[in-house]
């Protein structure tokens, strides 16, 4: 196994983490910004108003994006296992 193989595996792993968690983080960001904007307009500073909608949106996003996350992780693990079988690791 060469340094370029190690670099390729690590960069694929980092990209898999980004692709897997990116949609959920984007949902949390958008919902958080909408709630912050609403709180700034109405001056309602309630902690449950920020927490509950964000959690609900994240759970719905997890339900919607689970197949994508599975595909990304499966592709990464298949590649790693193929390297192990071929003697690359």
Q: How would you portray this structure in words?
A:
This protein is mostly helical and 89 residues long. The chain has one domain (15-85). Helix content is 89%, strand content 0%. It contains two helices and no strands. It is elongated, with a radius of gyration of 19 Å. The chain crosses the membrane at residues 12-39, 51-73.
Helix share of residues? over 70%
Q: Got a strand count?
A: 0
Could you tell me the strand content as a percent range? Answer: under 5%
The major beta sheet can be summarized as: none
Taken in chain order, the helices and strands follow as HH
List the uncertain runs: none
Shape: elongated
What is the SS-derived class? mainly alpha
Count of domains = 1
End-to-end Cα distance: 6 Å
What would the average pLDDT be, to the nearest integer? 90
Radius of gyration: 19 Å
Number of helices: 2
Membrane topology: Multi-pass membrane protein
Main location: membrane
Family: Belongs to the FliQ/MopD/SpaQ family.
Protein name: Flagellar biosynthesis protein Q
């Amino acid at each position: 196994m060469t340094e370029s193989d190690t670099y390729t595996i690590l960069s694929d792993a980092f990209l898999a983490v980004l692709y897997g968690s990116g949609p959920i983080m984007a949902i949390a960001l958008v919902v958080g910004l909408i709630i912050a904007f609403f709180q700034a307009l109405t001056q309602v500073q309630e902690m449950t108003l920020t927490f509950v909608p964000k959690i609900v949106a994240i759970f719905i996003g997890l339900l919607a994006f689970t197949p994508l996350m599975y595909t990304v992780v499966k592709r990464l693990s298949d590649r790693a296992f193929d390297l192990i079988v071929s003697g690359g690791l």
